Amino acid sequence: MNVMLAARALKGSAALHLTKAPVPEPGPLDVLVKVASAGLAPGMMRLLEMGAFKHLPTTLGHEAAGTVAAVGAEVTGATGVAVGDRVRLHPNLTCRSCVYCRTDREMMCAQQAMVGHAAFGDVAMPLYDAYHDGGLAEYVRVPSWLIDPLPGNVSFDVGAKVHDLANAVRALKCADLPLGSTLVVTAATGTMGTATVKLAPHFGVARLVLVGRNAERLAAVRPLAGEVPVDTVALEELPDDWAESAGLTRRIREIVPEGVHGVLDFVPQGPVMAQATAAMATGGTLVHMGANPAPLPIPARIWMAKCWRFVGTRACTRSDAQEVLSLLARGVLDAEELITHRFPLAEAERAVAAMQSRSEPIWMAVINP
């Protein structure tokens, strides 16, 4: 039996385990991909601790790109997938037939789960049962309909991170910003923050206010916005009592007295979301993608009076990913500089530890088996 190296989650453990596993055998409608690059997501270990992975043991990793190593007997030329093709996998496992799947809202499907990642519902999930093993391995098996061709001018590393770029596209779409808008991006030095900064000019954003913990790291992110003017707010430079005294709201209002048009919030906890929201102009939109458990302490009457919108979104759709691939293929978007860290598969545990410790700035990290 052929075996491969894989980074796996095991029952009863919240750690990552590097083990040998069988190379998957493709079924009739499957594609086997030899992984060249797999993305690392900082939230996957937290989801593992929460019990969101329904099948253990399992190979982690919902972001992957590589070359087609084999195709199933019923994968025809009409699918456009052939051995040797450069591809990326779209990780969203859904029913493909419900009203959400048919209206570009697949992340709302009751069966929504992700290859190598979490399942979000309590209904039967036959696709997740069959395809829960992910891409932090030398090979990954996926349904043929979840394969996207990777343009020749796009590296495997960027191809692996298309999903995060597509998440940023979805968040920007949800914000529905007017042309010439001013946008706050929180957690701006992280994976989703940097992806959003890079994409914001393509959505009519005319000014960015970037919020993060560290001034030096924010300064490093500033050039990603291209010619869009950028202001930064470092939490470490606010008064010590900013969390209790609305110091972040005041600072954003000093920068943009008329208020901002939107907030894209990726902070997983704490008061940043609420304080950034309070700096919005009338008609502003908060888009949250950080899974913050804290309550939002702004009365409903304020939302009514200000005509604010609150939109939650947990993932991108296939069309979002294809928009990113189109931008990359046309050379309109260059995302290579977002890949700041590359690790061999043998060092996957060290890579996860580096992302969890936040001891050094990591925008996007990939594993190269």
UniProtKB/TrEMBL annotation:
SMART domains assigned to the protein according to its UniProt record, in alphabetical order: PKS_ER
Occurrences of domain Enoyl reductase (ER) (ranges): 12-362
GO molecular function, one term: oxidoreductase activity
Alphabetical UniProt keywords: Metal-binding, Oxidoreductase, Zinc
InterPro entries from the UniProt entry: ADH-like_C, ADH-like_N, ADH_Zn_CS, ER, GroES-like_sf, NAD(P)-bd_dom_sf, Zn_alcohol_dh
Needed co-factor(s): Zn(2+)
Pfam name, any one: ADH_N
Gene3D superfamilies: Medium-chain alcohol dehydrogenases, catalytic domain (3.90.180.10), NAD(P)-binding Rossmann-like Domain (3.40.50.720)
Family designation: Belongs to the zinc-containing alcohol dehydrogenase family.
Record-given protein name: Alcohol dehydrogenase catalytic domain-containing protein
